[in-house]
Amino acid sequence: MKVGDRHYHTIWLNEDGRSVDIIDQRWLPHEFRIETVRTVDGIAVAIRDMWVRGAPLIGVTAAYGVAIAMLDDASDAAIDTVWEKLHETRPTAINLRWALDEMRAFLRPMPIADRAEAAYLRAAEIAEEDVQLNRNIGMNGLAIIKEIAARKKPGEVVNILTHCNAGWLATVDYGTATAPIYLATEEGIAVHVYVDETRPRNQGAQLTAWELNNHGVPHTLIVDNAGGHLMQHGMVDMVIVGTDRTTANGDVCNKIGTYLKALAAKDNNVPFYVALPSPTIDWTVKDGVKEIPIEERSGDEVTFVQGRAADGKIAVVRISPEGTNAANPAFDVTPARLITGLITERGVAKASPEGLKALFPERT
Ligand code: MRU
């Protein structure tokens, strides 16, 4: 998407043909910084410490990490080593394992001498596929927004609530939850987005608000606890969120707090949609609550917040008494029964085994 007058992806091959350039998301919205990552260790740090984040982008970054590893050693053992090293960086987003499995399955049958070059090409393909998947998600989600807009009186807008950042920054381009919103805006449909700030890391306040602002999408930032109140007062027409892992039964794991939004939506008859590309479906898992590993991050993310201080510098400040114990589960699971539909690249599925199988018959 555009930043200033340039079109950016979130990750691309550096002109040296070996390293990758990324948008370092730790500094947004205050500073737009590009970093060059040259090593597998650098890729692992960029994923773990969330220079890049969002399930699809984590996957693409890992694919490039495998390519970088192949430059030094393209043996089977080296493929397994980089697989393990990158897989342990973040445990919940299944796109990470999907991309690592893709790369391994693609490279294994090849002569060792051909693997490095082929790995870069496959990583670039995975990145390009992500863009295409998101475009298709956008078209399928747009149809839903159009239906809601058609029921509105002249002058009324479609109010959409979103949680965390499932925007273009979380993917290579377009985003998942934001793709229908961007397309609706391009078509001149009046949409307005309520952006949950998304504590503790504030991906909504820092990233989603930045994206929507850049693209001229009207939006209002709200604290995480405001959504239920807005829904009770008829101020939300639909919720769209992303997901880090969706089970074969349609349970959705996403940023902590998503579950509470889904409960509030159910109680107020507000449609609750999840936008996802098929690499986010974990066909091996049925019960999301019992089976999906939930990342526990440092309590420091709860007891400190980052922002821009009055002197213009980016500052990290403590918000609780020194020594306060903090728990920080990064994701939760929304059971399928609370979900109106899964917006995928192939269409909108019911959040059920049958719904997903109907769209992806090859997985049965
Ligand atoms: O911890 P993060 O910022 O990586 O979490 C991101 C999310 O929860 C997104 O909603 C999810 O990855 C889907 S991104 C299209």
From TrEMBL:
Domain of life of the organism encoding this protein: Bacteria
SUPFAM superfamilies: NagB/RpiA/CoA transferase-like
Residue sites binding substrate per the record: 53-55, 90, 203, 254-255
Record-marked site positions (Transition state stabilizer): 164
Keyword Nuclease: no
Keywords: Amino-acid biosynthesis, Isomerase, Methionine biosynthesis
Residues of the active site: 244
Catalytic activity: 5-(methylsulfanyl)-alpha-D-ribose 1-phosphate = 5-(methylsulfanyl)-D-ribulose 1-phosphate; 5-deoxy-alpha-D-ribose 1-phosphate = 5-deoxy-D-ribulose 1-phosphate
The enzyme's E.C. designation: 5.3.1.23
Pfam families, sorted: IF-2B
Gene Ontology MF terms: S-methyl-5-thioribose-1-phosphate isomerase activity
The keyword Amino-acid biosynthesis is assigned to this record: yes
Biological or metabolic pathway of the protein: Amino-acid biosynthesis; L-methionine biosynthesis via salvage pathway; L-methionine from S-methyl-5-thio-alpha-D-ribose 1-phosphate: step 1/6
GO biological process: L-methionine salvage from methylthioadenosine
Family label: Belongs to the EIF-2B alpha/beta/delta subunits family. MtnA subfamily.
PANTHER family referenced in this protein's UniProt entry, alphabetically: METHYLTHIORIBOSE-1-PHOSPHATE ISOMERASE
Its job: Catalyzes the interconversion of methylthioribose-1-phosphate (MTR-1-P) into methylthioribulose-1-phosphate (MTRu-1-P). Also catalyzes the interconversion of 5-deoxyribose 1-phosphate and 5-deoxyribulose 1-phosphate. Part of a bifunctional DHAP-shunt salvage pathway for SAM by-products.
Name of the molecule in the record: Methylthioribose-1-phosphate isomerase
Organism of provenance: Devosia psychrophila
Lineage of the species this protein comes from: Bacteria, Pseudomonadati, Pseudomonadota, Alphaproteobacteria, Hyphomicrobiales
